Each structure stands twice: as structure tokens, then as C-alpha cells.
Automatic annotation (TrEMBL):
<dbReference type="Pfam" id="PF13839">
    <property type="entry name" value="PC-Esterase"/>
</dbReference>
<feature type="domain" description="Trichome birefringence-like N-terminal">
    <location>
        <begin position="92"/>
        <end position="144"/>
    </location>
</feature>
<keyword id="KW-0472">Membrane</keyword>
<dbReference type="InterPro" id="IPR029962">
    <property type="entry name" value="TBL"/>
</dbReference>
<dbReference type="Pfam" id="PF14416">
    <property type="entry name" value="PMR5N"/>
</dbReference>
<dbReference type="InterPro" id="IPR025846">
    <property type="entry name" value="TBL_N"/>
</dbReference>
<keyword id="KW-0735">Signal-anchor</keyword>
<protein>
    <recommendedName>
        <fullName>Trichome birefringence-like N-terminal domain-containing protein</fullName>
    </recommendedName>
</protein>
<comment type="similarity">
    <text>Belongs to the PC-esterase family. TBL subfamily.</text>
</comment>
<keyword id="KW-0812">Transmembrane</keyword>
<keyword id="KW-1133">Transmembrane helix</keyword>
<dbReference type="GO" id="GO:0016020">
    <property type="term" value="C:membrane"/>
</dbReference>
<feature type="domain" description="Trichome birefringence-like C-terminal">
    <location>
        <begin position="145"/>
        <end position="417"/>
    </location>
</feature>
<feature type="transmembrane region" description="Helical">
    <location>
        <begin position="40"/>
        <end position="63"/>
    </location>
</feature>
<dbReference type="InterPro" id="IPR026057">
    <property type="entry name" value="TBL_C"/>
</dbReference>
Amino acid sequence: MVSRLYWSSLGYFRPSIIRVLSFGNSLSGGHCKSWLFQSFNVLVVIGSFLFFLVAMCSGYLFMFPAFQPVVHSSGTNMSTDLGNMSTDLGHGCNVFDGRWVPDESYPLYNASECPFAELGFNCLANRRKDKGYLKWRWKPKSCEIPRFDVLAVLDMLRGRRVVFVGDSLSRTQWESMICLLMTGVEDKKSVYEVNGNKITKQIRYLGVRFSSFNFTVEFYRSVFLVQPGSVPKRSPKRVKSTLKLDKLDDISTDWIDSDILIFNSGHWWTPAKLFDMGCYFQVGGRMKLGMSITGAFRFALNTWASWVESTINTNRTRIFFRTFESTHWSSRTRQNCKVTRRPLSRTKGRERSPFSDIVMNVVKNLSLPVALLHVTPMGAFRSDAHVGPWSDTASVPDCSHWCLPGVPDMWNEILFSYLLSQHRVILQ
Ligand SMILES: *[C@@H]1O[C@H](CO)[C@@H](O)[C@H](O)[C@H]1NC(C)=O
Ligand SMILES: *[C@@H]1O[C@H](CO)[C@@H](O)[C@H](O)[C@H]1NC(C)=O
Ligand SMILES: *[C@@H]1O[C@H](CO)[C@@H](O)[C@H](O)[C@H]1NC(C)=O
Ligand SMILES: *[C@@H]1O[C@H](CO)[C@@H](O)[C@H](O)[C@H]1NC(C)=O
Ligand SMILES: *[C@@H]1O[C@H](CO)[C@@H](O)[C@H](O)[C@H]1NC(C)=O
Ligand SMILES: *[C@@H]1O[C@H](CO)[C@@H](O)[C@H](O)[C@H]1NC(C)=O
């Protein structure tokens, strides 16, 4: 019963409640204020201009949504099953609607002292010189994310199995989680990869055990979540491989017996990684050559949804799905990008993604609770936080992956604060 109650509290992560509204931000506000101030100093002697300037600037102010009252024009009502939940995140606070604020107490760890942060994501170790990008914290509009309490989290995870499934962005969150947790472990040698493996891009399984706390944090590489298939006879020549959209990845049986299960998918659903490689879609043994990528993504996610409904015991397993992690490429060909020194003040449409929309629609339709980590809007501001040219392989700059420490730490902070608030409810 208790489980049922606390599960129902997941409501406030449900898409019906997630509204990406106006992205109020202090950056544009700051600009406007200082501009105003300087202008006054200069123009104060020219009295006749003063009036004109005030009028101009109020017009200017009106053009910035940050200065207007935020209207929460929620299209749907909050689900009522939230009623009895009191959590640190606050009633119905959408933690994904907010802004980045400077915070000198960040970062939370040093990647060079964490053996599980891969060199490719450790930008400082790859000669990134500016450090401002490390000093930002996500601030939801109507609540605070409680400060990361490593000992409380380590304690909560005792005896648990945490499983990440997805692509390299999942691996980043996995690495970030391990590095965050290791800051609370005195004997660093008590934390080890169960098979003694090193982190590589292609590896299908990595499991890190925190032996003094009796839990593991694991990563399964499954970039499409569904199974690769063979090429049926009499297929056109261009078909070199297929994806069976109606079959979940064959390693999925290993995901079932877990306590916390976090999925993602999206970055591999591109023409360059599919059609250009000769990879086409298949359903029920038949080729679907005309199917669009977003159509295929939706199909695959529905396969995932049926799998969740038929195999996962939600009395035990808490399921999360992370939405699309924003990229900042300067062109569609993904050859160029410029990493900025500060976060963007406007997201310019990057706060939305068709992949995120599909994830939200599929999750909304599930009869079981799945918590959405809707990271698309928060990532959209962070053109300063990508790996860029500071990776261990200097080829093209990388504006998909994030530096560690960095943005994925915030995904974990949100995940932890959420799990902790649930944990306290159970203990009561
Ligand atoms: C989950 O918990 C509920 C309530 O305690 C119980 O009725 C149900 O059978 C449980 N489901 C499973 C799959 O154990
Ligand atoms: C929200 O709830 C109010 C009152 O309960 C109701 O009048 C309104 O139609 C609801 N709106 C939506 C979009 O469901
Ligand atoms: C909280 O739960 C109690 C008992 O289940 C119920 O009577 C009460 O109305 C609920 N409160 C809210 C705000 O939903
Ligand atoms: C991180 O740790 C390394 C190795 O201990 C050290 O050289 C470096 O100065 C540290 N970096 C920061 C930013 O503290
Ligand atoms: C470790 O956790 C498992 C559950 O994952 C539990 O069965 C076992 O008893 C725990 N071991 C210790 C020493 O607490
Ligand atoms: C929602 O689920 C129902 C039944 O499971 C299905 O018929 C419908 O197509 C689903 N809708 C979407 C948008 O996936």
C-alpha cells in the first residue's frame, strides 16, 4: 500500500504537468539594467533626452519576457494524486522549469581524482582553460533542489542495484553518478568495476560496485533500446543491417531485476547513423523502408513501454526516462560548433525536441508510473558546457557530450533529491 502511495506521487513528473514556460533568466536582465544605468550617467546632462530614454528603455524592458509576470497557463489540471505528497521539491514544482544561477560552491568533484570519469569528458585534463562553466547550479522557478548530501544518498542506496540503459549520454550520467558518490567514500579502493574492465565507447556492460555500501551502479549500452536484426532475403541492396522495432534489445532481461532503472535514447536516431550506414527498420520480420526516423523512434518506444508494463515490478523498481539531451552544433552536418564561455541567455527553440515530445507522449500513456527526467530545456542553455575541442581524441569538436564535472551532475542531483524525498515518505 505504502509503495502504491509513494509511486502515485510520481505524478508531478508526468508530462501533463511539465510545462516549459517562459524561460526567465537573469542574464538578459543584467544586461538591460547595466545598459540603463550607464545610459543614465551619460545622458543625465541632456535633460531633454532623459524622458525619451526612459520611454525607450521601458519599451526595451517589455520586450524581455523575464520582466513580465510568468503566466502558468497550464492546459491540463494537476493530477490529484499529488495531494498528500510533501517533498523537498515542493508541491507541483516543475523542477525542469528554471534557470542556471552562478554558484561558487560548484563543481562537486574533481574528475582527475575520480577513476570512473573517462578522459574524453574531463575537459580540464584536456587543457580547457576557462573554468566559469563549472560554476553554475540549476534553480527551478518555484522551489530549490536540496543540496547534494552524499552520505544520505549512499545510505539510501544500500543493498540496491542502479541500472543505466542507453547511449554515451547515459554513460556520462553513470560516470557522473559514480564520481559524485565517491566523494563520500573514504576507501576509494572499495569501489571497483566488477569485471575489472576499463571504460570504452563500445563496451556493452560496465558495473561499479560500492562494496562498503553493498550496492552497484551499472551501465548497459543499448543505443536504440531495440534489437539489431539481419537483412531479410530480397531486400534492396542499400539495406546492410536492420533494427527490429518490435523487439526490445536482447540484453533487456538483465535490466529487470533492478531497483532504479534509468533509460535514454535519441542521439543515434539520425540519418547519418541509420540510413547512411544502410540501416533500415523492420517490424514483424518485414522491412519498413519508407518509415521515418521519428515514426520508428515512436514505434521503438512503444515496444519499450509494453516491455515495461509486462516485465517490471514497479513495487520494487523505480523507472526513469531522460528526454533528449540538447546539442549545440552550428550546422546540421555536425562538423562545427563553438563552445561559449557562459550559458546562453535564450534557448532559441533548443528547449524542445521531437524526440522529447515522443518520450513524453509514450510515458504519459503508460499505466505504470515512469518519472521523466526532462533535461532538454536545462541543457538548452548550456552551450558553454560541451566537450567541444577538449576531448582526448582531437578530431572534430563535440557539441553533443558534456564535460565532467558538469550538466550531467545536475541530472543526478535531481534524481537523488527525488529518490531521497520518496525514501523519507516510506520511512515515515
Ligand atoms: C505490488 O503491491 C501491491 C500492494 O501492496 C500488491 O497488491 C501487488 O500484488 C504487488 N505487485 C507485485 C507484482 O508484487
Ligand atoms: C481543471 O479543473 C477545473 C475545476 O476542477 C475545471 O473547471 C477545468 O475544466 C479543468 N481544466 C482542464 C483543462 O481539465
Ligand atoms: C490526504 O489523504 C487523506 C486520507 O487518504 C485524505 O482524506 C485527504 O483528503 C488527502 N489530502 C489531500 C490534500 O489530498
Ligand atoms: C584535480 O586533481 C588533480 C590531481 O589531484 C590536481 O592536479 C588538480 O589541480 C585538481 N583540479 C582542481 C580544479 O582542483
Ligand atoms: C547486500 O544487498 C543484498 C540485496 O541487494 C542483500 O540481499 C544482502 O543481504 C546485502 N548484504 C549485506 C552484507 O548487507
Ligand atoms: C496509448 O495506449 C493505447 C492502448 O494501450 C493505444 O491504443 C494508443 O495508441 C496509445 N497512444 C499513444 C499516443 O501511444
